[in-house]
């Protein structure tokens, strides 16, 4: 199988606890995988490792069959990975919604008019056109989450790592996200506590519990 993400015997300890031990995981090309688990089980920590934000692990992380041990080795894959953190508070770089959604495209060298046009379409697709000129830090938690998702989806990464993408969203916004994510053919890991959300999205579900990743 062609794998986008592979974990081999991945173990991680923080100062207080061993969070996981000898975890194996394969996420295939365009496969959608969900991870559930109790508060504090280590789901966000695991996603941060796969997102290249923490290299203090033992075992192996591979992206597209390339072993990655440190930040330098991760760099050439960074633009292939779209990571939505659980807490988007410190996530935004621009004052307004439209500027922030355009930002990653502009950073890749895209012309301003083209980036603006794509950002407008992205906001429409996510049903948040009315937020276009709002100051991000004046938005609600759910609005911020969906703006952050727009900024990720617009760059069309090959891998999506989504940490509780719907935890602050109303039913209408959640259904829109389900529809969009279902229409996207990418490798995805989705962490969520919402079983009904996951059931509509990811055929493969793992439970992170007692240091192990168990297929359910
Ligand atoms: N930066 C940090 N420094 C020290 N401990 C941390 C840090 N980040 C997380 N932890 C601890 O690691 C453990 C796992 O945290 P993590 O955020 O990965 O859990 P989670 O499964 O995502 O939980 P939740 O469902 O509440 O989001 C927790 O006990 C947490 O307190
Ligand atoms: Mg978490």
UniProtKB/TrEMBL annotation:
<dbReference type="InterPro" id="IPR003439">
    <property type="entry name" value="ABC_transporter-like_ATP-bd"/>
</dbReference>
<comment type="similarity">
    <text>Belongs to the ABC transporter superfamily.</text>
</comment>
<keyword id="KW-0813">Transport</keyword>
<dbReference type="Pfam" id="PF00005">
    <property type="entry name" value="ABC_tran"/>
</dbReference>
<keyword id="KW-0067">ATP-binding</keyword>
<dbReference type="GO" id="GO:0005524">
    <property type="term" value="F:ATP binding"/>
</dbReference>
<dbReference type="InterPro" id="IPR003593">
    <property type="entry name" value="AAA+_ATPase"/>
</dbReference>
<dbReference type="InterPro" id="IPR015856">
    <property type="entry name" value="ABC_transpr_CbiO/EcfA_su"/>
</dbReference>
<dbReference type="GO" id="GO:0042626">
    <property type="term" value="F:ATPase-coupled transmembrane transporter activity"/>
</dbReference>
<dbReference type="InterPro" id="IPR050095">
    <property type="entry name" value="ECF_ABC_transporter_ATP-bd"/>
</dbReference>
<dbReference type="InterPro" id="IPR027417">
    <property type="entry name" value="P-loop_NTPase"/>
</dbReference>
<keyword id="KW-0547">Nucleotide-binding</keyword>
<protein>
    <submittedName>
        <fullName>Cobalt ABC transporter ATP-binding protein</fullName>
    </submittedName>
</protein>
<dbReference type="GO" id="GO:0016887">
    <property type="term" value="F:ATP hydrolysis activity"/>
</dbReference>
<dbReference type="GO" id="GO:0043190">
    <property type="term" value="C:ATP-binding cassette (ABC) transporter complex"/>
</dbReference>
<feature type="domain" description="ABC transporter">
    <location>
        <begin position="5"/>
        <end position="216"/>
    </location>
</feature>
